[in-house]
Amino acid sequence: MDEELQARQCHLLDLPWEDVLVPHILCYLPLQHLVSLQRVSRQFHSLIQVYLNNCRTFGLSLGGQYIPKEAFCSMLKDNKVLQHLALQSCSDWVTDKELLPVIGQNQHLQRVNLSGCASLTRHSLVAVSLSCLHLQHLGLAHCEWVDSLSLRSLADHCGVLHSIDLTACRQLKDDAICYLAKKCLKLKSLSLAVNANITDESVEEVAKNCRDLERLDLTGCLRVRNQSIRTLAEYCPKLQSLMVNHCHNVTESSLEPLRKRNVVIDVEPPLQRALVLLQDVLGFAPFINLQI
Fold first, then answer.
1. Fewest CB within a 10 Å sphere: which of 12, 53, 126, 190?
2. Which PANTHER family has this protein been placed in (predicted)?
3. Is the pLDDT of residue 22 over 80?
């Protein structure tokens, strides 16, 4: 009887790896559990490697948790099918040395997020541009190492780019943004926020070339004025969201036509701002009949 019962027992590793364990179980485990499982036995180590070698998303699926350097290097060394790579959780330690091999062997990447990775250099962005010709979404927020040369390389090779976040990439000036706009005509989302170098020249070039633009973030672009916002309203009929907070030279005269098109703008109309101030002072908002 005991022998018959023992024969009936099914162990986890007896289940089909690629048909059951990888797609239906391992994909729900956090990174710490996967790392721990690798240490249980040689079989578990082999199983985890099978999963990681076929993983198409790294970073996003891990819930934003911290990813140790050793785990990153060992887990992705043989993966050649990545489509989404998000490294915000690696921003404390990731350098070109760790990133370049991963980029070089994954030419099908469509989404890459390097936001906050301060220790990288322009070589990483050049590598992305040369290897990831199908790239659609790129996050480079607070990557101050991004310069004109590397952005031009990206524009030359990644013409199908749909969105790019260049928030606080303070080395970039109008010439680089204009070049990007002329090459990446399919852009739908662009952030140039927190960059005092950006002027009307950049915004107008984006407006005239990227007709499918839906979202533009100009927060803190102090040199942007009404002229380019009017051009944006004229050339970008699909615009849905515009962020111009702290753009002190952008006034209601240029924003009003966009409001009439129901474009979401992060700056309230002057009258509404005045009512808020009155409420703060008086403790209530006076009723104002706006009907004529």
1. 12
2. F-BOX_LRR-REPEAT PROTEIN 15 (PTHR13318:SF179), PARTNER OF PAIRED, ISOFORM B-RELATED (PTHR13318)
3. no
Residues contacting residue 142 through CB under 8 Å, at least 6 positions apart: 115, 116, 118, 167, 168, 169
Q: What is the pLDDT of residues 165-191, one digit of tens each?
A: 999 999 999 999 999 999 999 999 999
The torsion defined by the Cα of 208, 210, 212 and 216, in degrees rounded to 10, comes to -100
- Supply the DSSP symbol for 14: G
Domain 173-282 classification at class level: alpha beta
Token pair in block for residue 286: 């006076």
Summarised one tens digit per residue, pLDDT across range 121-132 is 999 999 999 999
Q: Which amino acid type is present at position 204?
A: E
d(CA 172, CA 205): 15
Asked if 28 and 51 touch (Cβ cutoff 8 Å), the reply is no
Which of 42, 44, 35 is closest to 12 using CA atoms?
A: 44
- The answer to whether the beta carbons of residues 213 and 206 sit under 8 Å apart is yes
Tokens read off for 70: 């050793």
The strand pairing partners of 139, in sequence order, are: 113, 165
- Give me the half-sphere count of Cα atoms (radius 13 Å) on the Cβ side of residue 31: 22
